[in-house]
Write a structure and sequence with these properties.
By secondary structure, this protein is an alpha+beta fold. It folds into two domains: 231 residues, 2-Layer Sandwich (Endonuclease, Chain A), CATH 3.30.870.10; 197 residues, Endonuclease Chain A (Endonuclease, Chain A), CATH 3.30.870.10. It contains 14 helices and 19 strands. Helix 1 packs across helix 5, helix 3 packs parallel to helix 4 and helix 7 packs antiparallel against helix 8.
């Protein structure tokens, strides 16, 4: 066989693998578009870090306090599905030890309630794709609590330019936590080169979900927050709820377990035993629907496109880059919708400087169109919430929140994500707290104490080179956002 023919076969194999794995059928149960169901027992939770004019910092963080409380009262079932579950953090700032606290809460409750069924699911990034050992996962396993590191291979490839090569040359080698010799970005244990070969696949189980029993019912909590020490100062949002929508959360989590060849009899039994019958006034407290993967995109576009003149659309996001979302926001602004966008400046992550891509480039586009943009005032932490709010002139307030950034990777059936869509009265505690979370940051600019947001000009970036770099990265998947 000539070298030309061999080269052509290799190229054809790479192109074929890249195309197939970018567009192959989704695993069963992924991209869950939950039915609209009655909302019960809803509680809005927020985390915020405040920077005062005297240089001090205070924190108002509710989410993991509630997660730990719910675990501490569980009697027969706990499910935790969390993306970042490790203790890595910059050394120069005090962080809350969330990974240790979550681990201890699960172990202690299992010791108190030996019959308690606990399901822990996480992302293989926490062991650098099998190249190291997580002390937290090991502690859980030693306490009899199984941990599933999600098998990401059945998912579509978000970076086919690299993943096609990786699937043909590298995925077959597995990994070895005992054979490391390279620095570990998430810990002290050295890792293998195979860990770093897996990293540019740029896909993840990015969900942040908790389900526990609470009294005679089940309660779910969906959030943007991770049990990650370096993330403990981030601003985040969460909503917890009871009722039939919890069963939808369990169904979506059953699909994640199936990706890794796992099942859980208790989870299956809880789904089968669910009673979804409701009284006539079932929607009195509001409506809710569980959305995962591209169903989140569909919900976001529906909310934005349905907004009428003088309605308010407010976004508070860590990453905003999805082209369909950007186009929909520009169209809404042209219709007379009052759009406001609060973004992280993408200037720092865990002690490392960042380029500002993609938020500053999208902000430039929105700013030129006349859409008000402000930046969260951060000092090492991130504006990590993912919250879309629609407030019409009359009628219910709609919220969309959870794990998903508004990016191609998060919304186009590439990562695993979980969001919650809710529709509630503007006078409800859920709506008022969500609106206050946004308004307080938006209104507390320079001259306030604390200063929670900064004007667009503070982090404005007019570079067309970086703008088109963002567009290329978003389109190809050659990015971490």
């Amino acid at each position: 066989m000539s070298l030309k023919v061999l080269f052509a076969l290799i190229v054809l194999s790479l192109v074929g693998a890249g195309f197939y794995h970018a567009y192959k059928p989704l695993p069963q149960g992924i991209s869950h578009n939950g039915d609209v169901l009655p909302l019960s027992g809803a509680v809005m939770l927020v985390d915020a870090t405040y920077h005062h004019n005297d240089g001090s910092e205070t924190r108002d963080h509710e989410i993991f306090d509630e997660i730990l409380r719910l675990i501490g009262q569980a009697r027969y079932f706990v499910l935790v599905d969390m993306f970042l579950f490790n203790s890595s953090s910059p050394a120069d700032v005090e962080h809350r030890h969330l990974s240790e606290q979550l681990t201890e809460a699960l172990i202690n409750r299992k010791a108190e309630q030996p019959e308690l069924e606990i399901v822990v699911i996480s992302d293989p990034l926490n062991t650098l794709y099998g190249g190291s050992v997580s002390p937290w996962f090991q502690a859980l396993l030693q306490a009899g609590i199984p941990v599933t590191e999600t098998n990401l291979r059945p998912l579509r490839d978000s970076n086919p330019a690299w993943s096609a090569i990786w699937r043909l040359c590298c995925q077959w080698f597995g990994n070895n936590p005992e054979g490391g010799w390279l620095p570990n970005a998430l810990g002290t244990q050295p890792v293998t080169i195979r860990s770093y070969l897996a990293l540019p696949n740029f896909k993840a189980n990015h969900r942040k979900v908790l389900v526990t029993d609470e009294g005679e019912t089940l309660r779910a909590l969906v959030t943007s927050a991770n049990p990650h020490d370096g993330s403990s100062r981030h601003s985040n949002t969460a909503i917890s709820f009871t009722g039939p929508a919890v069963t939808d959360v369990l169904k979506s989590e059953r699909a994640v377990l199936a990706l890794s060849g796992q099942t859980n009899p208790t989870l299956v039994r809880l789904i089968s035993a669910a009673n979804t019958s409701q009284p006539a006034d079932q929607y009195a407290a509001g409506r809710i629907a569980i959305k995962t993967e591209s169903a989140i995109l569909d919900s976001a576009l529906q909310m934005i496109s349905s907004a009428q003149r003088e309605s308010r659309l407010d976004l508070a996001f860590f990453y905003l880059s999805h082209r369909e979302i950007v186009a929909a926001l520009l169209d809404a602004h042209k219709r007379g919708v009052q759009v406001r966008v609060l973004l992280d400046a993408n200037n720092e992550a865990f002690g490392h400087k960042k380029s500002g891509i993609p938020n500053r480039q999208v902000a430039l586009e929105l700013h030129k169109a006349g859409i008000p943009v402000r930046w969260c005032n951060t000092f090492g932490e991130q504006c990590h919430s993912k919250l879309l709010t629609l407030r019409p002139l009359a009628g219910s307030t709609q919220l969309l929140l959870g794990s998903a950034n508004f990016t191609r990777r998060n919304l186009d059936d590439l990562n695993l994500e979980t969001d919650v869509w809710v529709s509630v009265s503007p006078d409800s505690e859920v709506a008022k707290k969500a609106v206050d979370f946004f308004e307080r940051q938006w209104q507390s600019g320079p001259g306030s104490d604390p200063v929670m947001s900064l004007p667009y000009e503070r982090w404005a970036d007019d570079s067309m080179l970086r703008y088109w770099r963002y567009r290329l990265m978003e389109a190809t998947g050659l990015s971490t956002f």
